[in-house]
Amino acid sequence: MSPILIESIQAIVVDLPTIRPHKLAMHTMQRQTLVVIRAKCSDGLEGIGESTTIGGLAYGNESPDSIKQNIDSHLGRLLVGQDAANINAAMLRLDKAAKGNTFAKSGLESALLDAQGKRLGLPVSELLGGRVRDRLEVAWTLASGNTAEDIEEAERMLDIRRHRIFKLKIGAGEVNADLKHVIAIKQALGERASVRVDVNQAWDESVALRACRILGDNGIDLIEQPISRINRGGQIRLNQRSPAPIMADESIDSVEDAFSLAADGAASIFALKIAKNGGPRAVLRTAQIAEAAGVALYGGTMLEGAIGTLASAHAFLTLNKLQWGTELFGPLLLTEEIVTDAPVYRDFQLEVPRTPGLGLTLDEERLAFFSRK
Ligand code: MUC
Ligand code: MG
């Protein structure tokens, strides 16, 4: 039987409005830009994937424009004519020809998995070995930048039973003001919620040592990426001294980074992101390293829309342990959808479909409307 071939790869830049500005240490998002991948195959099936980052080049070293350019000029061409059903061979071909580019590779890997799932009539979670859960706990990020507004938003989320874990984005402001903001929110919510912070590398070690102690002593459950990803010695010392656990996010730019962080004891929790490892299969390699090293896991996001969110979710469903839940709330930050059925959030959890592939269908009209011309 002749193999089913990949016939074309398309990368489409899509700009979508958000429910409010989303304030991070390095950037304030006024909208979100997705790169949607379409992989057409010779059996008539199409796989969809997503390669999304935050704030152009503010977050990492790929931007929506560079992702599209590199897929159009290099990565897509390498895949055309290849066996669509052999995802190992396809991704190996990309890895041999292109260093890094994990965001672009993640969208491509997701699209190939979606197509293969549709072909075999299996959800992507089953292609990845099988799910051990059907739903995922989902945190919400409070990032309006205003304490009273954030408390109001958290209360609303608790009332409607959508979230009971809150992540606060800090680091842009003066440290004492940030600490006051976080502690006020924790005091307002008390034991009804888990409150965590993400500093997005904004502090140096001297600030972080004091701040982590204060946060831990005030009931903050987790501290994400307090200092630069480059300062490995500082990360190790903080991991030993902070009363609240330290999570690595930006420090993991590849599966190899995960290994060296684990070997050095530089974090006790890893944020798993398909975009930073090169896809749903690649992120599971980082998870396996963590599990072997006794590092706990959290299902992270790059604030992807429905496609990237479900590609992540299918992978996270297969993990033995996901001690810290997930933050797969990206679609809830957007006011518009480009798929026909939005992901379902209920009772603090995301429900992941059991339909073939990722379980999503593009809404062609909405996609055309929001695509960058
Ligand atoms: C990050 O650094 O974790 C994830 C949730 C959120 O609000 O921002 C992202 C990025
Ligand atoms: Mg983070």
Provide an overview of this structure.
With 373 residues, the protein is α/β, with parallel strands linked by helices. It folds into 2 domains: 6-121 and 364-370, Enolase-like, domain 1 (2-Layer Sandwich), CATH 3.30.390.10; 127-351, Alpha-Beta Barrel (TIM Barrel). 40% of the residues lie in helices and 20% in strands. It contains 14 helices and 13 strands. The protein has helices at residues 64-79, 87-97, 102-120, 124-127, 147-159, 175-189, 205-217, 232-241, 255-264, 274-277, 280-293, 306-316, 330-333, 364-370, and strands spanning 6-23, 28-41, 46-50, 135-137, 140-142, 165-169, 194-198, 222-224, 246-248, 269-272, 296-299, 344-346, 349-351. The strands form 3 sheets. Strands 5-6-7-8-9-10-11 form a 7-stranded parallel β-sheet. Strands 1-2-3 form a 3-stranded antiparallel β-sheet. A 3-stranded antiparallel β-sheet has the order 4-13-12, with no helix packed on it. Strand 12 and strand 13 (349-351) form a beta hairpin. Helix 7 (205-217) runs parallel beside helix 8 and helix 9 runs parallel beside helix 11 (280-293). The longest helix has 19 residues, at 102-120. It starts with 5 loop residues before the first strand and ends with a helix. The model has no long low-confidence stretch (mean pLDDT 97). Bound molecules: [(2S)-5-oxo-2,5-dihydrofuran-2-yl]acetic acid and magnesium ion. The site of magnesium ion has 5 residues, from loops. Belongs to the mandelate racemase/muconate lactonizing enzyme family. Pathway: Aromatic compound metabolism. Keywords: Aromatic hydrocarbons catabolism, Isomerase, Manganese, Metal-binding.
